[in-house]
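Input sequence (400 aa), recorded before submission:
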Amino acid sequence: MTKHHKPIWDRGQQIDGEMMTYTIGDDWQQDQRLVEVDIRGSIAHVSGLIHAGLLPGEVGANIQKGLADLLESWRRGEWNVEAQDEDVHSAIERRLIDRIGEDGGRMHLGRSRNDQVAVDMRLWLRRASEDVAQAMMNLIKACGAIADRDGHCTIPGYTHLRRAMPSTLWDWIGAHEAAFSEDLEDLDRAATRWSRCPLGSGSGYGIPLPLDREFVAEELGFVGPEVPVTAVQHQRGRAELAYASVLESIALDIGKLAADLWLYSTGEFGFVKLPVAFTTGSSLMPQKRNPDLIELLRGNARQVVADRAALLAVVQDLPSGYHRDFQLIKPPLFRAHDRTLASVRILARFLPELEFQTEVLNEASSDPELQATAKALTAAAQGQSFRQAYRETSLGGSRD
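Predicted structure, token format:
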């Protein structure tokens, strides 16, 4: 059983160690990625305390220097959140007190871990969404490059996975590019969910001190404080769910493109040749080059759907106020982010290396059956009933 440091809420009572281990779970591991934003939020909070006259400037400056030093030492790999720590907040506060003395404990004046983790998550969401947005722009650019290079090639358009009408590679990749562009727009709209600062809401019902919430919000780059203070815990999980929903949409769009490429690269289709550098081999069959990347892009899309569902399951049907359940938001959110970002980045590298087989595409597109719709429409445009023209050009029971 893990031996834990004395929790910051300790009052000298006996606490069951197994209970502590269970309630902490893997949260200390999840919190590794919150170290930087937690320190950033704490530095701004201390500035707010100084601004409100609740902390002497000299003491506050010492705390902020200690926090900055902790951040630098963390970046150098000298420490991290440990299993003995309850969470990132406790890990930082304990180390700060060890570094500068009891003044480090004054940092928590006017703050609860409830609003502290809420601001951590919103700062993390801001940075995470910016990373995904940049990767999406690169992916959209890669789609555009295919359109510029090979867009003139004809390709059969499919319904029910049967050849239906002639199309072009420009239209095919353009549809995928449009979907990714809409995802990027959705990401921008979702950012309003994490644009307001939770600090000053305390455990959920405000802090009975003259805190300047506007000042702290501005320090951290938010558009303003979350109002009313009760909205912070009431809406816990909403920003994370909004982000996960966009990630789900991105992942599903990636999965659709992967499914197309998976089919088009088979010997039965032969529309596109996959670059050797992005395929794997078989341990038994020496001739095989396998599309593992495409298959895992497709599979990870489904995993992101599951991650979002797991996140939703955590927050649904909870009454108002803070609940420890919120701790369980982090794992599915972080998984969805990591999977989606990795998929977007590798796909943007992969697409420019595809070799579309022009002759095969043109031959497949020259199938006379693909002209049936155009033939019927031409006859109807010349005055014939469309249904009569449809029947006359029917090729034996094809269905829309």
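Checked by second reader. The chain has two domains: 17-109, 114-363.
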